[in-house]
């Protein structure tokens, strides 16, 4: 089908996840969290004892991901089930994100996930959250947004999230991890993180979530 797509790309911690779920709710559109797919491949690799540099085995895992996204009654967050096991929380760890960025650097793994991502397009429209949504996966998207924020601000946000969840965290360790992930995502050969030439860039360092959401909705209405 030819349904509208809004892509939101940017580095980790730029606020993409939050903005995308608010956008999807506000517009009543579907949501693709493409990072979750790379995280699932990394997690499946762990479960099956596949090394993160075993490209051919990783491609097989990516092509055959047995995953369900379930929306439990009375909850507003999806549960993610991998091979019958609930993995919603293990997917969100820093370790899993870091492993995901290692497998995501492999072109054949990305190719194996391409059609699965495009299949998320459905009525009335799709919000696509990732690194290459506007550049590779949905080049024809109606609106492309690129969110950035300073690495220090992104580390602070992540730190506060962890502290609010009652988890221990080191701000310095988070910053180092974010910088390493940025470098891997921006400097890889295939589908590096960068704004599409026709993307609207928004630096969210000093913006509230509400302000970012309002700016994106405003753009969406202009293009609608
Ligand atoms: O967005 P999230 O932190 O869940 O993504 C985890 C990792 O997956 C990213 O650091 C990136 O390397 C990879 N990724 C990607 N392309 C996407 C989404 C995520 O390469 N579209």
From TrEMBL:
The keyword GTP-binding does not apply. GO terms for molecular function: ATP binding; dCMP kinase activity. It catalyses: CMP + ATP = CDP + ADP; dCMP + ATP = dCDP + ADP. The gene is cmk. One of its GO terms (cellular component) is cytoplasm. ATP binds at residues 10-18. It holds the Pfam family Cytidylate_kin. It comes from Amphritea japonica ATCC BAA-1530. SUPFAM superfamilies: P-loop containing nucleoside triphosphate hydrolases. This is Cytidylate kinase. The lineage of its organism: Bacteria, Pseudomonadati, Pseudomonadota, Gammaproteobacteria, Oceanospirillales. Transmembrane segments: none annotated. It is found in: Cytoplasm. It comes from the Bacteria. GO terms for biological process: pyrimidine nucleotide metabolic process. Belongs to the cytidylate kinase family. Type 1 subfamily. Its EC number is 2.7.4.25. Keywords: ATP-binding, Cytoplasm, Kinase, Nucleotide-binding, Transferase. Residues 6-221 form the Cytidylate kinase domain.
